[in-house]
């Protein structure tokens, strides 16, 4: 999905989830098979969700190698903890929740590592200073408008964590407000507020570039 700047910066009405009874029944059957230890069901789960989980993690981490590792960790965690899944949220919601939680944990760990390296370098503790990880190109950056897209992605990465996740799930994964609320374990009005503030921040930083770019 390519980002369209006017659409991203415009407020949009909440969308209704498009879950159907047959889909819910199929998901319940898959969960039952997973909980019974079916390897075939686990392969089905991975095939069905691996691309979506990888993309949402990549949108947050922006490193293909890290995103691949985290996505694998998510499915390992699912395999190990599926017995505790009680169906209080959709399976996809649970997966997104695990994925965003692990991705944000990685970001916090990376930032702490950089801060530690910075302070140890100031104090002169050795020459093995950690440097910033290379800024891997996001797949979307291969599309049209690379410079503006990079600028957008940089500012998305600077949003507070909850805003960043809400914005990514809405515009990268096209989840409904209700689905995002389930992932973040919050309310639809809270999601609307997160997206409103995210868009307001992005408008502030990006509109001058769109006018004069």
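^ structure tokens above, recovered residues below v
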């Amino acid at each position: 999905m390519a980002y369209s700047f006017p659409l991203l910066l415009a407020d949009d009405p909440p969308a209704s989830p498009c879950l159907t009874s047959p889909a819910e029944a199929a998901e319940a059957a898959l969960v039952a098979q997973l909980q019974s230890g079916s390897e075939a069901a686990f392969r089905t789960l991975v095939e069905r969700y691996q691309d979506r989980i990888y993309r949402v993690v990549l949108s947050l981490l922006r490193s293909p190698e890290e995103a691949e590792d985290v996505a694998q960790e998510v499915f390992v965690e699912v395999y190990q903890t599926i017995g505790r899944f009680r169906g209080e949220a959709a399976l996809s919601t649970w997966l997104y929740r695990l994925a965003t939680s692990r991705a944000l944990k990685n970001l916090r760990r990376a930032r702490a590592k950089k801060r530690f390296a910075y302070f140890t370098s100031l104090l002169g503790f050795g020459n093995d200073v950690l440097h910033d990880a290379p800024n891997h190109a996001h797949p979307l950056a291969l599309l049209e408008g690379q410079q503006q897209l990079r600028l957008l992605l940089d500012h998305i990465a600077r949003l507070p964590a909850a805003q960043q996740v809400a914005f990514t799930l809405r515009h990268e994964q096209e989840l409904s407000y209700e689905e995002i609320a389930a992932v973040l374990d919050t309310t639809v009005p809270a999601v609307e507020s997160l997206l409103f503030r995210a868009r307001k921040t992005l408008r502030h930083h990006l509109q001058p570039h769109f006018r004069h770019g």
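The mean pLDDT is 77.
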